[in-house]
Amino acid sequence: MARIGFVGLGNMGGPMARNLVKAGHEVAVFDLVAEAMTSVTGASPAATAADAARGAEFVITMLPAGQHVRDAWLGAGGMAAASIEDAVLIDCSTIDVDSARAVAASAHRPFLDAPVSGGVMGAEAGTLTFMVGGTSDAFARAQPILAQMGRSIIHCGDAGAGQAAKLCNNMMLAAIMGVTAEAFLLAEKLGLSHQALFDVASKSSGQSWALTTYCPVPGPVPTSPANRDYKAGFATALMVKDVGLAQEAAAAAGLETPVAAKALELYRRFAAEGGAGKDFSGIIEMMRG
Length: 289
Ligand code: NAD
Description:
It holds the Pfam family NAD_binding_11. 48% of the residues lie in helices and 13% in strands. The protein is α/β, with parallel strands linked by helices.
């Protein structure tokens, strides 16, 4: 059993913290929203992030974006000032690579960037994939804790490598979902049923996670967000954030990524037309319109 501080208890952080409580750890939690803290039964609510971190062996953050993470660790009264010399700091948020490296360089403690894939369903089931950047020593210490929230824990390299992997992964996902949605719309026009396209493509070279786990039309995969009017799941606003970060990273590296640029343009339009809070696979509705 370990003492763990957990900061940021939203759609993802809430179920992740609950899994750590279930595994028998002593968990202190902090969120700006008080109800988010009481939703983690068995954890101790703290008055500040630094209070949640105090005395912890592991401190985990799951926050919206880079600025929140910089503030939580390095800002006035941030956790870097808390006396947690022996703790391993683990940021599971999806943020820009520069922020991850800046916090790692200034934290003066072992720090891992460990963003996740698998969505809210994966967070609840404890089956997330963690992609981790940081030293081998910090990774070895954190691995058993991450394994209680996830199924695949992958060490990607030094600080920032976890975020780099996450941005590249979500850039692929954004474009693949977009073209998968277009293929279902083309099938409709050609008189081919959704189920027939699914049956063929899921066993052919068009196969992908976007098709077989997250199918953008209702029916073939009963658990996909399409079956619940694209509610919950992975919000389009977050996809816009992630592909935007990938585009910024590509631009900074002098790399042209026109396919991802087009995907970002489409998700931005969907978000602006009312889809920001819907699952990103709902982009098929905008395309159909
Ligand atoms: P969310 O908005 O549901 O939760 C964020 C939580 O952080 C909120 O409860 C908010 O009150 C809290 N918060 C914000 N600033 C804070 C601060 N300074 N101190 C303490 N608490 C603070 O977001 P989410 O869906 O849980 O996503 C969190 C991160 O995980 C994001 O970076 C997102 O991109 C990433 N992610 C999300 C999903 C998903 O499917 N939702 C999947 C993979 C990765």
